[in-house]
Design a protein that fits this description.
This protein is α/β, with parallel strands linked by helices. It folds into three domains: about 70-155 and about 190-225 and about 240-405, Glycosidases (TIM Barrel); about 410-655, Rossmann fold (3-Layer(aba) Sandwich); about 655-750, Golgi alpha-mannosidase II (Immunoglobulin-like). The strands form seven sheets. It has a nine-stranded mixed sheet, sandwiched between helices. An eight-stranded parallel barrel has the order 2-3-4-7-8-9-10-13, surrounded by five helices. Strand 29 (about 715-720) and strand 30 (about 725) form a beta hairpin. The radius of gyration is 27 Å and the shape is globular. The N and C termini lie far apart (about 55 Å).
Length: about 750
């Protein structure tokens, strides 16, 4: 048996950097698991923790009293091209979606090209229309088969004749020139503050209402997602700059003003009709998501596939969590592209079946309705029909199990505050200004939460009322830089009432107008005070030094670090004033190159790297560095372990549901109408971080444990993907069962008596 400490010291002095690092990793793995081999099941994916009893069940809903769109479970869209009136067989199109058991189909009215003989000025007829009522024929074919129809418009672009007659409709560059579509330069971009939206769009809606029976109206291409418009037309040049909180509020006001106007027009013919628009944009959103959530009857998550900027496999379920944060159980559908998304992309060609299926899996798992989308009916002539069998098979499978996808509420005890205003308007600290800054932060905490299968929800910063957040054992603030005084007070009240809080870096250092504060808005809550401006690095980031005497007490957040005195710090930090009894202190960053100088010039400081407080029921943990983002950039396992340990300490390791087993898995757990449903998404795949999935890497047994509320009895446990019933054990209220193997997706549906 080697003396670990002595071994490490001798490695350090010998200068054998690589052997030291690898030896240390090996020792850590052994120290943590007591095993010779480091494996996921023993270290990361293992559940562990203290099972807490699930809350009393929500009262049953009367499904028949819900509006029609709340009962929609499958949505189909063949996105019509100008050529489709020449090549699309309408009966075959309607037969396909009907055979897939779609409840509703999108049919294009548009606004860029009319698919019916429109008389609205500047509503240009497609060149293959030839006076035909293509839209009307599609509506008739869909309704004949019992499918509802969404009238789909596109208010974002128009043609040169419209521009010549209405130069005020165009978005303008700073120099006054017209903004055109990047791919088809004949089309100009329309300004959402102009009369185009007040006059032209309503004229089309009223014409549709006068001619057809449609169920509701939708606008594609507007409002923008994930960013704000940058227009310098006569109206917009009088508004605040488009990257400011003041503009964001005006932008949201205008979106909701038009939304209300269009909704009223939709209802002029049919009071059950309504309007909805393009939404999504993940945590960045576009309009204020809390306000949008109050307005939207149908949240159209236009999150169709991985992008070059967001290549992670979980992009769809992340969007689902955003929807759940703001919708209070209202309807959301996520648009899955069956065509080849990405850049470059192929709009008329199927992507891999494994990838399309995973996006649909994520849609269902995160509580949204599956929606399949393909562009153009050229395939109807036999060019590429691969997506159709996949879609039909998947939709028909969901139809067999609809009742288990009727979710009442999510089961989670950690809330991650999104910080939408920070995501949209803050671009990182002065030391690292980049539009990717918050994306990297969000992905870091998301990835970390998945690795240990924590049950978590997203929480919007404008929805921190006590009745919403009291259900969480801990809230996480991953560099939520912008928080108003009121939001800080809500978080303070939450901790005083026994809630736990984790915060990092510049959280609360700015108000809701992005005005810097002299000290953190949450300084008193975390017991911290700012000692200086953000510090980056010119080489090595800082290290966190484990204070010997505190380490000896084996604090829970240092579990697994017995053989090291220093840990990786974050790339950027906001220095804090010294505190009594620190656990981790900062070793300032230093050069990486040349190696001759790669040692800490200051070996030890009194600057805290983490500040922990234990106040009665509630606990708080503050990291002075951007630990989540640094974890994302590097994948350093010590940072992952530190985040995991901290979350376990904050929640007292309480778990709502424990799923133990191998694999990198995203978990959702729902209280459903029939009982409960545990959804497992298997991301263990070579293409998890860079698309697309081309295979399924099956994983071994997953052991599930939940503690049901008193009086709740289990009738059956069924696996919906495998379509088998499982044996289960009840010990008091403690439910246990084992999912024998996990392919790409499984849903364990618990039916109660
Ligand atoms: Zn404008």
């Amino acid at each position: 048996m080697i003396n670990r400490r002595k071994f490490i010291q001798s490695s350090l002095t010998s200068g054998a950097a690589v052997p030291f690092a690898s030896a240390l990793r090996g020792l850590e793995a052994q120290a943590e698991t007591g095993a010779k081999q480091f494996s996921w099941s023993e270290s990361m994916a293992a559940g562990g923790g203290v099972l807490v009893t699930l809350p009393e069940r929500e009262p049953a809903r009367d499904m028949s009293s819900l509006p029609w769109h709340m009962r929609v479970r499958r949505v189909g869209q063949t996105n019509m091209t100008e050529h489709d009136p020449a090549v699309m067989n309408i009966e075959e199109w309607a037969d396909f979606w009907h055979s897939a058991q779609a409840d509703v189909v999108f049919v294009s009215v548009t606004g860029i090209l009319a698919f019916y003989p429109s008389k609205v000025p500047f509503h240009k007829h497609g060149k293959f229309l030839n006076g035909r009522d293509f839209f009307g024929e599609c509506v008739t074919a869909a309704r004949k088969r019992g499918m509802r129809v969404v009238a789909r418009m596109s208010p974002d672009l128009n043609w040169p004749d419209a521009l010549a007659a209405h130069p005020e409709w165009a978005m303008r560059h700073r120099d006054g020139s017209v903004q055109h579509n990047g791919q088809e330069p004949r089309l100009f971009k329309t300004c959402m503050f102009s009369s185009y939206m007040d006059d032209y769009v309503p004229a089309i809606m009223r014409e549709i209402n006068s001619l057809y029976e449609v169920d509701c109206f939708y606008t594609n291409g507007w409002p923008p997602l994930g960013s704000l418009p940058d227009c310098h037309c006569a109206i917009c040049s009088k508004l605040p700059s488009s990257d400011t909180p003041a503009y964001w509020r005006i932008f949201t006001d205008r979106v909701l003003e038009l939304w209300a106007k269009y909704d009223a027009i939709a209802k002029e013919k049919n009071p059950e009709s309504f309007f909805f628009a393009n939404s999504g944009g993940n945590v960045r959103g576009g309009p204020n998501l809390a306000r949008l959530g109050e307005t939207a009857k149908w949240f159209q998550a236009d999150n169709q596939g991985r992008t070059w900027e967001e290549p992670e496999v979980w992009g769809c379920s992340l969007q689902g969590r955003v929807c759940n944060a703001v919708l209070d159980g209202k309807f959301a559908a996520n648009v899955t592209a069956a065509y080849s998304t990405g850049s470059p992309g192929w709009r008329n060609l199927s992507k891999s079946a494994e990838e399309t299926r995973m996006w649909l899996n994520e849609t269902l798992a995160s509580g949204m309705a599956p929606y399949l989308h393909f562009v153009g009916a050229e395939g109807g002539a036999g060019l590429d029909l691969r997506w159709q069998d996949l879609g039909k098979e998947y939709f028909r499978w969901t139809a067999k199990h609809d009742r288990h996808f009727a979710n009442r509420r999510s089961i989670a005890n950690i809330g991650v505050v999104i910080g939408q205003s920070t995501q949209l308007l803050y671009s990182g600290p002065a030391t690292a200004r980049t539009r990717h800054y918050m994306r990297e932060t969000t992905q870091g905490i998301y990835d970390a939460l998945l690795w240990r299968r924590f049950a978590f929800d997203f929480v919007h910063e404008d929805r921190l009322e006590p009745e919403r957040i009291a259900r969480y054992r801990a809230l996480v603030l991953p560099n939520v830089a912008m928080l108003s005084d009121r939001q800080c007070q809500q978080l303070r009240d939450y901790v005083n009432a026994g809630g736990s809080l984790m915060g990092s870096f510049e959280t609360s250092l700015y108000d809701e107008n992005l005005k810097p504060r002299a000290n953190f808005g949450l300084a008193d809550v975390f017991g911290i005070s700012k000692a200086g401006e953000a510090v980056g690095t010119n080489g090595n980031p800082y290290y966190a030094w484990i204070e010997q005497e505190n380490a000896a007490r084996a604090h829970a957040i240092l579990a697994g670090f017995a053989d090291t005195r220093w840990l990786p710090g974050a790339e950027n930090r906001v220095p804090l004033n010294p505190i009594a009894d620190p656990l981790l202190t900062v070793v300032p960053g230093f050069v990486r190159y040349p190696p001759e100088l790669a040692y800490p010039p200051v070996p030890h400081t009194t600057e805290p790297a983490v500040v922990l407080r234990d106040k009665g029921a509630g606990r708080t943990a503050w990291f002075s560095g951007d630990v989540e983002r640094t974890y994302w950039l590097t994948g350093h396992g010590d940072l992952l372990r530190l985040i995991h340990n901290t979350l376990r300490w904050l929640t007292r390791d309480e778990r709502m549901v424990i799923v133990e087993g191998p694999g990198f898995v995203e978990m959702f757990c729902w209280e459903t109408d029939p009982g409960y449903a545990v959804h497992l998404l298997n991301y263990t795949n070579p293409n998890t971080h860079h698309g697309w999935l081309r295979s399924v890497v099956s994983q071994g047994p997953q052991q599930v444990r939940m503690n049901l509320p008193s009086g709740v009895r289990v009738k059956t446990v069924d696996l919906l993907r495998s379509e088998v019933s499982l044996p289960f054990k009840m010990n008091g209220q403690d439910l246990r069962f084992t999912i024998p193997s996990l392919d790409d997706y499984e849903v364990a549906a618990v039916t109660i008596t």
